[in-house]
Structures are given as C-alpha cells and as structure tokens.
Amino acid sequence: MHRPLAITDDQDLLDDLLRIAAAAGVEMDVAHAADHARPYWTRAPLVVVGGDLADALAAVSPPPRQNVLLVTRVRDDPDMWRRCVAVGAQAVLELPQEERLLVEELGELADPVTRSGTVVCVAGGRGGAGATVLSASLALTASRAGARTLLIDADPLGGGIDVVLGQEEATGARWPDIVGREGRVSFAALQDALPTFGELTVLSWHRGEPADIPREAMRAVLDAARRGCDLVVVDLPRTVGEGEAEALSRATATLVVVQADVRGTLAAAQTLALLRRHTGDLRAVIRAGTLEPDVVATALDLPCAGLVPELRGLVETLDRGDPPPLGRTPLGRFCSELLSELAP
C-alpha cells in the first residue's frame, strides 16, 4: 500500500504533519521540494501540501488529481485560497485548529471501511426484563455464526455485561479507560484494547464508581465499530443520557424487552416515551406473562419482533459463570431468527 505524501520544506510544519500522521496510525512520504514530489504525486492516496511550497508546486504543473489538501500554520492568510486553487486542493486546513480533520483524513487510509456494521440497541421496558441477557445472546449468536461483533454495555449500573458472558476476569479495557476518547479511533486499535473472544469484542463496565458515557466517546466507538464490524449490539439502561442518545440515533433498530403483564406494559410505555425522542425503529420483544403478546404490542403501538422463550435455570447458569445457553436451544433459535431480520 502506498503512503500519503507531505510536500513541505517548513520543518515546524513537517513536525506537525508527522505527529498527526502518527496519531492516525500511518506513515508519510516527504518531499522537501516541489520537483521531488513527482514520483509520488499520482500514486499517493492523499497529498498534503504545505503552504510554503504551494506556489512552487503550481509552477511545475502536476497533473490534476483527487485527495489533495493544503495545510498551513498561518491563520487567516488571504492568499491561501489562491494557492489552494492553484494546486488543485480540495480544502485548506489551518493547524493546529483543524488537526482533528487531518487526523480523520489520514485515518481513513489506516482504517478504511471494510464492513458496515448494523447497530441494534436493546432496552428493558422495566428493570429485570432481561435486556442484558438478550443483548449478550444476540452478540454471542452473531459472533458464533462468523459475524464480527461488538457488544457495548451502556448501563453503568448493570454490574458489567462481561459477567453475563462469564468473562469478568478477562483482561482488557473497560468504559473508564475509554470515556476520555473522542475523535477517530481505528477498530483494530479498539479490538486490541478490549476483551475479544473469537469474533466477539466486548466493551463492558467495571465494578467501580459509575459514570456517564460522553457523547463523543460513544460516537468514536460506534464510528470505529461500524467501519470494522458486521454487528454492534448496545445494551441500554432505562435512562437516556448523551451517550445513550448517540447510540439510539445511530441504531438500525431498537428492541424493547417487555414483560407481558400490566405493570410491565405500563413501565414499557414510560420507557418508550424517552426512547422515541431519539430513534425511530422501535420493536417489542415480549416475555410471556398474564397478557397476550398482541395485546401488549397494540397497547404500546409497537410491532412485535418475537416472543422470547423462557429458560429454566438461567440465573443458576449465569451464577456459575456460564454464558446463556444458545445453539439449538429455544433462545438460540430465537436469536438466530431475530438476527436474520435485523442484520441479514
């Protein structure tokens, strides 16, 4: 793979560009004169032209090409846009104010879009409805079928979704290690940092002081996951903060687990009032109770995505440190059928 090209003889600017490239996870070729850029001009995936050599580059008339940026450390230079047109650049970036934009442009080269992950959020209509178990079961089912999957625990008061998987002792980062993250992050770097089991990567909470998930951190994680995953499952709390709102806004579908009784239905109606502010495609996953599933779905004005099967001894299974029983079990078949609709 060819490397991006930096064209500048300004050592301070070059130092900035190399530092930014390192942050994006790429290496750059460097031309210290306009003539030296000729061998790299057409093959470099991205060309970054320093303002100091823009006129010299225009004078040698390189062939037109896409993906050229003009960068400068001089603010509000009225002549810079003339130079931008002269070298055929698509934009002028002033450093350090627009460093993040350059990191993102370079990051596309290090972490190109290889997949387009479907984002599925799962919320409980009330506490104890089983949303976390369903989230973990969907993620496990998808990953065991060969889909690269990220399971995100967005509930800081849930005790950690890694416990449901029987992986609470697994080494790797948890949310407190990620919450300060913003801007672009590659999925490869995320996967290296987080506990990963085959095709399943897990971002869970620790068992310490709970905290909110900043919108920027959730956005960075989801952006990386959508580039590198087939499926992203987000286990939501029953409150909606900034991070949860970000996940909901990106969801292909949001599943609401509803206990089919009067209290469960009333609680789910209140939960839906919050969720509907942030997302459009909401579906009920119903647990058997005293009410008929179609009555619950009609009362909530939601399509029914299915009736989740009850499993005897599930609590004991989880307490032993075993994940939910899937495969050919009723829960495994239910998850496979549901995933075939949500993320074929």
From TrEMBL:
GO terms for molecular function: ATP binding; ATP hydrolysis activity. It comes from the Bacteria. Residues 7-113 form the Rv3660c-like CheY-like N-terminal domain. GO terms for cellular component: cytoplasmic side of plasma membrane; cytosol. Pfam families: CBP_BcsQ (PF06564), Rv3660c_N (PF26563). One of its GO terms (biological process) is negative regulation of cell division. Gene3D superfamilies: P-loop containing nucleotide triphosphate hydrolases. This is Septum formation initiator. The lineage of its organism: Bacteria, Bacillati, Actinomycetota, Actinomycetes, Streptosporangiales.
